[in-house]
Amino acid sequence: MSRKELWQAGQLPPVLVINRPSDEPVTRGILAALKEPPSSAMSLPLVVEDFIVGALAVIARGDDRFTEDHARLYTTLKEPFFVALSNTFKHEEVVKLKDTDPGPIDLTVKKDEPDVTPKDAEHDRYRR
Could you tell me the residue ranges of all domains in the chain? Predict the structure, then answer.
């Protein structure tokens, strides 16, 4: 079953380990684009609400470089990377909001505006 089929079936493993890139066209293509020799690869998909928002990938030159222990340890990085990614998105949002800040709002009462402060005894009892 291909990675796409696993993803569509909801069976994508938490870490993808590709120890033989010659058997896996996507990894083979990425390695070629990076001008890397045949290398083993591990990829940690970062999934939010059924969408892959990123991935953390590492490579090691040669075949059969990663073990199940490597994959298990690699999964422990998922939460810290989610936190870092979330913090990055929040920072970008704050910067964007800062750039659209309309500036200070003037709340002073103008002389030509009527005074709407209650003056009767009914309202005076609440001011104490």
Answer: 1-72
